[in-house]
Amino acid sequence: MKQISFCITCMNRLKHLQETLEKNILDNFLVDEVEFVVLDYNSQDGLEEWIAQSMMKYIEMGILTYYRTTEPAYYQRSHSRNMVFRLAEGDVVCNLDADNYLGKGFAEFMMKEFENEENIFYISTLCKRDVFGRICLKKRDFIAIKGYNEALVGYGFEDAEFYDGLES
User: Fold this and answer.
1) Is the pLDDT of residue 37 over 80?
2) H or E stretch including 161?
3) Max Cα–Cα distance, the chain, nearest Å
């Protein structure tokens, strides 16, 4: 079982994922401890083909897992995150937007932080659009609060409610 899963939901953001995914894997290459889980949320931009052509070596190594759903017509942030977090194997789950870079050694840092603390989660303290919503938490805590509220639509409200659930 993996220690940490970086969970990426992607709908029609192939260009971003082509720029970030391999870099993030190589910067956090701990095959036995880390997995990157990509949920193709009905992308129509060639994501499935690109994964098959360019990322298969990482799938075969066991550091990348790829799932695809063809059901949603539109991106649903809470639903997609709930799906990918449930698919992840790691004890710790961390959402990662398709255009975000983790930086070298981020996985190792997070694993050390979670190793010594019982009640812990990490969120971004920045309120910039592309990093707001980043969260790392124990998967058991995600399950305990029943994930994101799928009735909330848009961006930001679901994060605030989710954080409140973790703090209580």
Assistant:
1) yes
2) helix 157-167
3) 45
| pLDDT, tens digit, 9 for 90 and up, residues 75-100 | 999 999 999 999 999 999 999 999 99
> What is the token pair recorded at 94?
């961390």
Question: b vs e for 40-78, b when ≥16 Cβ sit within 10 Å of the residue's Cβ?
Answer: bbbbeeebeebbeeebeebeeeebbbbeebeeeeeebbb
The Cα 58–Cα 6 span in angstroms is: 14
Would you state the structure tokens that stand for residue 6, as one six-digit string? 């970086």
Question: What is the per-residue pLDDT for 52?
Answer: 98
Q: What is the DSSP letter of 45?
A: S
| Neighbouring C-beta atoms of residue 84, cutoff 10 Å | 25
Percent helix, strand and coil across the chain, each to the nearest 5: 40, 20, 40
pTM for this predicted structure? 0.90
Question: Helices in 5-144 by DSSP H: which ranges?
Answer: 14-27, 47-54, 56-61, 77-87, 106-115, 139-144
Q: How far apart are CA 136 and CA 118, in angstroms?
A: 14
| 50/149 Cα distance (integer angstroms) | 31
